[in-house]
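Table 4 source record.
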Amino acid sequence: MPDQRFHLSLAEAGRPMMHGWWESEATARAKFTAWVGERGREGARITLVDEETGATLTTWPDER
């Protein structure tokens, strides 16, 4: 997926459950927010990564 720079993943209890890739960071962030609202629950981990730079852009729950 050469143009799909932004990777969103959902894991539950440490197991990968869903993945999505988008060209637009704005679209990927909107999907992140939607996934948190729809699938954010205890034991879930949602991560958005910039595949080009390798940087983690945001996670749920927040790591701080």
